[in-house]
Amino acid sequence: MGSAEFLVQPKRNSFIGQDGRVKDEYIAQRAVINKAGRNSDKLLFDTDGSEDAATAAAKMTIADLTKDIVRVDGRVLAQLLLSGYARLNSKVDELNRINVFPIADGDTGANMKACLKIPARNLLLDRFESSIATVSSNAAADVLLNGQGNSGTILSHFYVSLAEEIREFGGGTGGEKPDSLSIDEFASCLRKAGRKMADAVPSPVEGTLLSVSRDSCANLPARSFSTLRDLLEAWNDLAREEVLKTPDKLIVDGVKVLEKAGVVDSGAQGFAYCVEGMVSSAQGENPEAVDPNLFKTGVVDSHGVGEILPAIDDDHTCDSKYRFCTEAVVSLKDNVSKQQVMEAIQGNGEEIGDSIACVSGPAKDGGKMAKVHIHTDSPQQFFDKLLPFSRDPVLLKEKVEDMKVMRELEHGEKTSDCLLSEAKFTIVDMGGSALPPLERSGELFTIPMFIVPANTEEPIDVRYATDTEALLALNAQRRESTAIRYTTAAPSPMQIKVELLAALGKGKPVLLFLFSKSSKFSSYGRNICKAIDMLDPEQRKSVKMLVHGWTDETSFVMEAIRCAKEGKTIDEAYAACEDYASRTFGCISFMSHKQFVAIKTWRPNIFPEEFDVEEGSLFISGTPAAVRSNAPSLEERFSLGSTPIGVGDSMVDSFEKTARHIKDGLKPGQKIGNLMIPCVGRPDNGHLLVKKLEDAGIEIVGTPDVFSYGIVAAVMMEWGLVRMNYKIIEE
């Protein structure tokens, strides 16, 4: 088919369905438009359902693997990689559920998907590239940049090694790059790539993704393969055999942890699924590989839906003595080797973490990149060790995840849905509210919020952006060359009405939260009021709206959740939230120069003309740390939340000044509770703030909630910054 046959012009606003949600199918159009220079050979999917199944499937097919293929060119390799991703994508929930080693944080499947999703999508966008060397090199660079977590880093090492071996058949980096390979030559590349897998981590562990990818490739029979299908079937058999050996091979402190848990290694199984997808496509049995929804946008968590998977006994799961799963991608300076990077991390006999993995390879701009993964308590120390090797003043990518929270999400007791389903009222909040992950529930209803990137002008519904999509967007904002301007877009009254009707469908009164009704601050309030007016009279009586007046409503939503779980009525919850907002709510914000510029661009009239934040400093603002005897008006609350506290010359200095501000404001016997610290990509900074509060002698009631903002933070916040909300507790 010619390129014109793949061109479907996007329809204005066709990505928004009548229910107010962004259509999942639209991700394919978004992906193309987001990729610069794609004015021809576009792969766009019809979103109105007019295409037949055969046409849609044809668009997802780069090469027909069912033929008797005797040479592997770029299109065949692209179809192999796409088919492998498709099968793995269908097994993500299973892989997350059986995740035991190196830590049972339930994200192996998600990390492997994140590693392959964008690279697989790009294979479709580059569908007419016929050189196997070019396709393998592009895929390697994409995988290297997008790999996440321990499994993603090791998986990317395999694809980089395979690309290196393919180039060798053309005489190396300086020679001619091969357009295609014979089946036996391709098999030789797989064997050699497998042998390189031991270099992915300093201390290889048997019975894992690393050993299974190594042995299934390196042990391919030294015979001539008649066709590609013949090779794939042999590879698939070996991969299956090696996965079944993992429970016996993986031993931690003398314990066969997989055997005790009754599972195989999740990363190894994920790799085997990739191989299985390839051979299934060659046998004409991989429907996932021609599914137009393969690259759909983030959706509501489907945990518990679909295939019933075996539970894992917590007594049999692994743990880490370090808290943060941390990784970085570095654009390496000339003549810097992977070994130098590893020595810098592990040098001087100083252990800053474990589970270290590193992979390096070519970047698309001709330079070199390195991807490094570690479990550590000091992410900043890790990043500081890498920065001297970077060509750029900012690392290409940073990622910090709190493994204790991830473990609790996957294996902890999940009670919110059950308790809220029995509540006497239903809660509706704004899409931009950042809730702690353990409190996110299908029993909560959310009004849409859209952010609009300037390069596409296509609203993104922040409720359905995945953590991975948020991470990519926030990392892009860290570098001038990739940063884009975002604005916000309020939902229409009809979109709001849809959510209100869904909430009312529970048959209970609805408690709705709103910052302000004034259009001076946002059209949210105006449209919510219009949506309520569109309801029937009896429905309107069932909606109770709390206008709290603070810029962040997360604290009041959490207070309502607590009330709901305790069996309180909607009136009791409203009174508790209003008292909290009026008297005891406290908040602190930290604003950098970069954030100040972004906010001023977004809302030009917020700051006085003479106001500025100097580069290298943080402007600290927030409420006085005191119980208010008289309830301030809504206008006064906005001003109180912006009260200047001071300027810090570093994050540590800012946190220490914040702690003194709160300590000096509290009266004897007063404490703080309901402490919530949403962070922009760096939960370790949130925990540092908690430590500074404790060091200052401030008594904190309950466990602080330190968690990550979603993609909405890309609009007006900066990577690494935090906010702080709290409640003053009186004796």
Topology overview:
Layout: H1 27-34, H2 53-59, E1 71-73, H3 74-89, H4 92-97, H5 108-125, H6 132-146, H7 149-168, E2 180-182, H8 183-195, H9 209-218, H10 228-249, H11 257-261, H12 266-282, E3 324-332, H13 338-346, E4 353-362, E5 368-376, H14 379-386, E6 397-402, H15 403-411, H16 416-421, E7 426-430, E8 445-447, E9 450-453, E10 460-461, H17 467-476, E11 486-489, H18 493-504, E12 510-514, H19 523-533, H20 537-541, E13 543-547, H21 554-565, H22 570-584, E14 585-591, H23 593-602, E15 618-622, H24 634-641, E16 644-648, H25 651-665, E17 671-679, H26 683-695, E18 700-701, E19 705-708, H27 713-716, E20 723-729
Parallel strand pairs: 7-8, 7-12, 12-13, 17-18, 17-19
Antiparallel strand pairs: 1-2, 3-5, 3-6, 4-5, 9-10, 9-11, 14-15, 14-20, 15-16, 17-20
How would you characterize the overall build of this protein?
- The strands form five sheets. Strands 14, 15, 16, 17, 18, 19 and 20 form a seven-stranded mixed β-sheet that branches. A four-stranded antiparallel β-sheet has the order 4-5-3-6, sandwiched between helices. The protein has a four-stranded parallel β-sheet with strand order 8-7-12-13, with helices on both faces.
- The longest helix is centred in the first third of the chain and has 22 residues.
- The chain folds into four domains: 57 residues, no CATH class; 221 residues, Serine Threonine Protein Phosphatase 5, Tetratricopeptide repeat (Alpha Horseshoe), CATH 1.25.40; 86 residues, Alpha-Beta Plaits (2-Layer Sandwich), CATH 3.30.70; 314 residues, Rossmann fold (3-Layer(aba) Sandwich), CATH 3.40.50.10170.
- The chain is globular.
- The protein has 731 residues and is α/β, with parallel strands linked by helices.
